[in-house]
Structure formats: structure tokens, C-alpha cells
Amino acid sequence: MDKHIKSANEAAEKIVEWGEEHKIETCFERAEKMKPCPIGASGACCKVCHMGPCRLVGKNAETEARGVCGATLPTVAARNMVRMIAAGTACHGDHGRDMVFTLLAVANGETKDFQIKDVRKLYRIAGILDIEFEGRPVNDVAKDVATKLLEDYGRQRGEVNFIKRAPKKTQERWKKWGITPRGIDREIAEAMDRTTIGMDADPDSLLTQGLRAALANGWGGSMISTEVTDILFGTPMPIKAEASLGIFKENEVNLVIHGHEPSLAETIVDVASEPEMIVYAQSKGAKGINIGGLCCTANEVLMRRGIPTAGGFTNQELAIMTGLVEAMVVDVQCIMPAIVETSKKFHTKVITTSEKAKIPGATHISFDEHKAREIAKEIIKIAVDNFANRKKEGSHVTEKYPVIAGFSHEYIEYMQGGRWRASFRPLNDAIMAGRIRGVVGVVGCDNPRVPATGTHKFLAMELIKNDVLVITTGCGSQACGIAGYLTPEMALDHAGPGLREVCEAIGIPPVLHLGACVDNTRILTIASAMAGEGGLSDEIGGMPAVGIAPEWMSEKAIAIGCYFAASGVPVIFGGESPVGSSEEVTRIMTDVWFERFKGAMHFEPDPEKILELTLDYIDKARAALKLKKYEPGKFGAERVLMDMAARREIERAAKPHIGL
């Protein structure tokens, strides 16, 4: 990988170069100018009280350095890590809470702008929550589901509802080590409490609470968000779309939806296609209205509506720099305040819509689910009216790539056996036979401190060459999408022989787009279903599976990595370690966590070493499970893979009166 480039995406790099020529600063230039503080970056700076900040450095800092209060370096590094987990859990927890309130508003008839689109998913979740749904009005069931999920936030004792979805053995590990989450807000509050001056000073004890807070994210807030979003807007299934900074159209109004919450974005997509709005756009000289996305709001409408995406985190300023964007509408999370400054050099209007994410200089229009369509119309009209102000300045790019997105838990299960024989058995069989060496999640942010999206691309390509099925979410999926990696043809061109055979039989890409960053919880439910299917492992821990966040930058990523480690998945983060100053904290997060939970968290800046460590974890897991040793092109004599057409014939023969 060329370390001199700013972005590994060609279209993005063109815009960065154009910006440099025109003296327009972006996150890439700021990353070069603003070097990270080496003390804070390694977790050795404590600033939780006004006696500090204290810098715990020196030759023997691990054993001799003390803050003013006497806190040791391992204590300080652990506190810093736990505070990151708490912040990430709070961010995703609030996302889930907002989605539940929207579901409750629908159930109570308080809004006509949303409705329940997946009743079957509603009933499935009701069943998990022990809520009776047979013969009851849909909205009554939805109200009970929303009410019970809201209890997960304020619960003081007991455990969050979705914990029961994990394999029994995984749950037993959590109970043994005291990390079963009681309530989402409860665990966040305790994490902040323990890390306050004069509180918990034991690194292991601190990190244990960090894992409990992280599990409240993975099996609580984020999982709630994923399931409720499916209920309201539909459970994703494969859909074709496009990805690149070249998605914007010269002769249409271009409106970008950016952030993480889908409610307003879904409404904007609906309203923008109405004849009234099209006529309005034409009256202003445009041929139509083109909606594009960024970050995880993009993923939400990409996987359900086929709306094209312009990429992930590092592409937000670059989208404005195309000169073609009339409005960028942002909700919450991963929004750079810099987009307002960038927009001043073009005609783009930046519109914030959340009371929790305002930016000085932006236009603010608060979103209210009770009048969603009214607000969407107001925003779209602002964009349309701005079309006439478009200037010729900008770096117009045209490259676009097709993507296939929308592989939910339910669809992955369905595609392996149809509606009546949906199962994860074929995937388990393919892993046991050695056709698929293992499964790796390549997820998380893209980062301007490295050639952005480059590590995602490198790892995705190398893993599929080694017969590893790659699943991706969040900006990781955007990185793969804008590189052209999310198509079935990728299997034919690049995947190893075993993975290629599986992909051809089922008709899937070797890199599966599972959704937004909250949708990492789909990976948890898939892993739980695979454990329940049998043949591999009776718990999530020990499966030939690894999680990688190659270019992480957000505290949300840390929380996600920790809930996977606690669930039994080894996780590798790219870049330098935020606890690298402490050997003891590093040991706890690798060796101790692996011994207790079969999961661990590593930090490794070298992509080649990340790949090596990943494959080593997978091969050791295969050996521990006594699976066939992985050898490229040499498979066992297990079940023959059948494509969907063959499976449908079996179903028709068994139940000829039932169609798909």
C-alpha cells in the first residue's frame, strides 16, 4: 500500500488532490498537521480530576509511576479504556432508545408517517420477549414490545432481555465472571462511577465493568436498534445499488443524508420521489432529485431502498468538494464539524436535525417523528431551492461501482434452505469441510491517519483469497463498496477455491454487507444460531471467527470490540494501542480475557501482521474443535452444496401446496 496517498479510494484521492491545489483543507491535511500526543495515545495520561492531568511516563512507569492521588499506570490506562467503552455504549444506546420511542409512537397512533413494515419480525421479537402475539392487534403487540425494550434502559437488577439469545454456555461464562449486563444506563453509569477519582483502582476490576457495559451495548442498545429498525422499515434482503463519490448527478438536485439514524432518511427517500416534489425540482431547473448517503445512515437506506452511497467517514468533506451537493442533512454520530467550514467554499447547505448533534454555522431543523413528512418536505425544498446557486467549482468524479447489500440474519438463514428449511447447517458444513476456512468481520471506521479505506481493502482481498468468508458493516462496508468488492463476481475473480464454490452455489458475494455499525449485532445472532445448529461449537467462543476494526477511530468501535471479545470472539484493532503504555492492561485484554471468555482484544498497526494473527486464530480454533485441517482446494466428503433452485425443488416436492 502506498503510504504517500491520503485515500486508497481513487475517486477520493482525486478530490483530495484537487482540494490541495485549491488550498481547501480536509481531515487528511489536519491529520498530518495534528500529530497525536504519544502520552495520551498510549493511555498514560490521567485527567479525571483537577489535580492533573498527570502523565505517567518514564523508564519504569509500569511499576513506579504514580499520579498525584497515587494511581498507577495500569489503573490509569484501564480507566481510560473503560471511559471509552462507556461513551461508545451511551452513543449506540441512545440510538436504540430513539428507535424504540418511534416504535412506541407508531403503536400508540401518535404518528401516521411511519408504520410497521415487518409484522413477522415484530412477532419474532415478541416471542423472544415472552409477549403473546397470536390473535392480537399488531399495534398492541408493538406497544408491549416497545415498553419491554424500554425497560432494558432503566433496569437496576436482573439482565437485559436479549441476553437469552446467546448460547447457554456463553451466558454461563458471563455469569461466572460477573459481566451479565443488568440495564443499559445502569452499566454506563457504573462505568463512569468506577472511573472517577478515588474509586476503583484495580485494572482487572475496572476492565470487567467495561466488558459488562460493552455487553449492554451489543446485547442491549445496538441489538434493540437493529431489531426495531427492521420492524419499522423492513428486514433487509439483498438489493443492488451503487457506491462512490461519483453517484452525484450534474442535472439533478443532490441531497446527501449522513449520520446513523434511519427515521428521517427513510422519510426523505419517500417524499423525494413524490410527483409534487419532482415537479417542484423541475420548476427550479433540475431534472429530478437524487438522494445519496454517507456513513451508516447511508447503509440503512442502501440495504432497504437501494439508495447509492458516497462512502464512509473520511468522504464527508470530499462529497461537498465535488461541488454537486445542494444539501447535506445530518443526524447523529461521526459527523465532522468541519463540513460547515468546507461548505462555505461551495454552495452546499449543511442541515443538522438532532438536538444532540448541533454544529455552529449549520442550519438546524429539529426532527420530530410526529411530523416527519412535513420536516422532510421542508428539507427537500431547501435543497431544491439551492440548485440554482450551484457553481462550476468542484472536483467532479464519475467512477461508480455496483454493490449488493442487505444480508440480514434472516436472509442468510433463508438463502441456505428456503423459507421452510431455513438453516445455518450448510454454512456450518462448509466450515467443517474446509471449504470455508473461517469467518471474519472486517468492520469499523475509516481513518485519515492511514491511507483511508486501504487496510479494509487489503484485508478483505487477502482473506477471501484464503477461503475466509468476510462479513462487513458500517464504514467497513462502505470501504468495500466504493472499491467494488460487494458483488458476486468478486468470488469468481479473487476468492479461494472453497469459498468460490460456496458463493457460486448459493449466489452470494464473498464479502457480505450486513448493514450499519449497530448491525454488528446481526453477527452476534448469526454466531448464536450457528452454535445452536451444532457441529462447530456449543458457544460463540472457540469458533473459527475473528473481528477486525482495521482503521477504527471512534469510541463506539472500542465498545463494539469489547462486546465481541466478551462474547468469545478474538478482535484485532488496527493502529497503536490506546492502552499500550501498560503491559498489565494489555495482558488482561489479551491473555486473561481469552482464558475467561475465549475472546481477546489486540492492537496491531501492521496490516500484514493483522492478517497473520487472524489466520492463526482461525486455524487454532479449527484444530481445537477437531475440524478438518484447512488445505486450499482439498475438501471433505460432507454434504453437497445445493443452489437455491435445487432447494426450492426439494421444498415443492415436500409441500407442493406451499409456494415461496
Please describe the topology of this protein:
Layout: H1 10-21, H2 27-33, H3 38-41, E1 45-46, E2 54-55, H4 61-64, H5 73-107, H6 119-128, H7 138-154, H8 168-177, H9 184-194, H10 203-233, E3 239-243, E4 253-259, H11 263-272, H12 275-283, E5 289-294, H13 295-305, H14 316-321, E6 327-330, H15 338-343, E7 349-352, E8 363-364, H16 372-386, E9 401-405, H17 409-415, H18 425-433, E10 438-442, H19 454-465, E11 468-473, H20 474-481, H21 489-494, H22 497-506, E12 511-515, H23 520-533, E13 545-549, H24 555-567, E14 570-574, H25 583-597, E15 600-604, H26 607-624, H27 644-654
Parallel strand pairs: 4-5, 4-6, 6-7, 7-8, 10-11, 10-13, 11-12, 13-14, 14-15
Antiparallel strand pairs: 1-2, 3-9
Helix pairs in contact: 5-7, 5-9, 5-10, 5-24, 6-7, 6-10, 7-10, 9-10, 10-23, 10-24, 11-16, 19-26
Explain what you see.
This protein has 660 residues and is an alpha/beta fold. It has three domains: 73-233, Substrate Binding Domain Of Dnak, Chain:A, Domain 2 (Up-down Bundle); 245-389, Rossmann fold (3-Layer(aba) Sandwich); 407-644, Rossmann fold, CATH 3.40.50. Helix content is 49%, strand content 10%. The chain has 27 helices and 15 strands. A six-stranded parallel sheet has the order 12-11-10-13-14-15, with helices on both faces. A five-stranded parallel sheet has the order 5-4-6-7-8. Strands 1-2 form a two-stranded antiparallel sheet. Strand 10 (438-442), helix 19 (454-465) and strand 11 (468-473) form a beta-alpha-beta unit. Helix 10 crosses helix 23 (520-533) and helix 10 packs across helix 24 (555-567). The protein is globular, with a radius of gyration of 24 Å. The two termini are 46 Å apart. Residues 637-644 and 653-660 have low confidence and may be disordered.
